[in-house]
Design goal:
The protein is an all-alpha fold and 205 residues long. The chain contains seven helices and no strands. It has one domain: Up-down Bundle (Ferritin), CATH 1.20.1260.10. Helix 6 runs antiparallel to helix 7. The protein starts with a helix and ends in an 11-residue tail after the last helix. The structure holds fe (ii) ion (FE2). The site of fe (ii) ion has 2 residues, from loops.
Length: 205
């Protein structure tokens, strides 16, 4: 009998069970250096210049930060809603929040596709956004809606400008995302919100 056969019969040729467990042990408490700084871009072969991709990433990160704040405002007001229109506004604001959440993902992934770094942490978002912070408590319903309308308008003005300038530099994908998703969804949501601030009777006397 060969030595190898003897070891196999004795079970000596197999790795000990303990070693196998150690092999599948996840790394934990891993803290390594950043591998890409915020505000920088990597090179991807998508036929767009460094300058065009850098410009688009900067503009998209501003829209992304403001849109994350808008999403937060929608959820806050969805939760804190009051009054006789509670049910319809509670549902409407949650629907709009869901649509904004989808746009947030599109914006972030566009930035990544251009080689940039998307703003993600809420504390970083708070540093970048231009949308005023609401009170921590509860406002009256018209103030909640006005606050949402003003946040929408800031984003719409910025997104249209960013879309035009991105297209000027050949970044049609960013232009399409900003116009088709951010601007068109935002305009439609403003319409639905603004109609709740019209003081009109249900019928004639
Ligand atoms: Fe809810």
């Amino acid at each position: 009998m060969s030595v190898a056969t003897k070891k196999a019969q004795d079970g000596q040729g197999q790795a000990p069970a303990k070693a196998k467990e150690e092999h599948s042990q996840p790394w934990i408490h891993v803290k390594k250096a950043e591998i890409q700084k915020f505000g920088t871009i990597r090179q991807f072969p998508i036929g767009l210049s460094y300058d065009a991709r850098m410009y688009s990433c900067q503009r998209l990160n501003q829209v992304l930060a403001d849109t994350q704040i808008l999403y937060g405002l929608y959820k806050k007001h969805h939760w804190l809603m009051r009054g006789h229109t509670f049910y319809q506004l509670h549902l409407l604001l949650d629907k709009h929040a869901g649509e904004q959440l989808a746009i947030i993902d599109e914006l972030a992934e566009r930035i990544q596709a251009l080689g940039g770094v998307a703003v993600g942490d809420p504390r970083h978002v708070a540093e970048l956004t231009r949308i005023p912070r609401p009170p921590d408590g509860c406002e009256e319903v018209p103030s909640m809606i006005s606050r949402l309308l003003e946040a929408h308008e800031m984003i719409l003005i910025d997104a249209r400008d960013a879309a035009r300038k991105a297209a000027d530099q050949g970044d049609d994908g960013t232009n399409d995302l900003l116009v088709s998703d951010v601007v068109r969804t935002g305009e439609a949501q403003v319409w639905f919100l603004a109609e709740h601030l019209v003081d009109t009777p249900l019928g004639r006397d």
